[in-house]
Amino acid sequence: MKLKLENGDTLYYLGEARTLRVIREERSRARVKMAMDLLLLWVPYEADYAYRRDQLEKWYRKEAAVVFQEKAGEFAERLSVSFQDIRIKDQKSRWGSCSSKRNMNFNWRLLMAPEPVCDYVIIHELCHLVHMNHSADFWHLVESICPAYLQYKKWLRENGKQLYLF
User: Are 40 and 55 a contacting pair, CB within 8 Å?
Assistant: First the structure.
């Protein structure tokens, strides 16, 4: 069920529930801010669902770019690999991908998943910089950095649709 993006809706940030508060006021642009367990969304009085949705997606995309860049940098160092660029996308069937040009793509909705699940996807894609396949060596490398990867992979399979809240 899609959220209406109104007061009281629950959104997630790294698996933590945040209560949405929509503040309608005389303004020309939206603003989004996270404060404790709230996600505050200031919008013009006339803001409809599509506008609220777009503003929240823009905010999640910006946050994802920062968080995923930082995490990828940390895990890349542990794996002794380097990547070119990180792009934030809205793939329908993938959480992440890695190109032969060493570019990493991540679905912005992954930022709503629990943090260890995010870490697993980032580690998975970074391991493709060493093994561009899903061989036994690839999975051993994933496991060396993320020992509980099977549990996170299962979480995505069973709960991934819940990240398409809006």
Answer: no
Strands (E), 65-162: 86-89, 96-98, 104-107
Phi, psi dihedrals of residue 98, rounded to the nearest 5° = -140, 130
In which residue are the tokens 């649709």 written?
161
Strand order in the sheet with 86-89: 86-89, 104-107, 96-98
C-beta of residue 52 within 8 angstroms of C-beta of residue 94: no
Residue ranges of alpha helices (H) inside 35-135 are: 49-79, 115-127
Q: CB of 23 within 8 A of CB of 45?
A: no
Q: Reply yes or no on whether the pLDDT at 154 is more than 80.
A: yes
Number of H helices, E strands in the chain: 4, 7
Indicate if the pLDDT at residue 126 is higher than 90: yes
**pLDDT (mean) for 55-62:** 98
pLDDT-derived band at 92, boundaries 50, 70, 90: confident
Contact 112/163 with Cβ under 8 angstroms?
A: yes
Tell me the one-letter amino acid at 113.
A
CB atoms within 10 A of CB 104: 24
Question: In the numeric block, which tokens belong to residue 42?
Answer: 């200031």
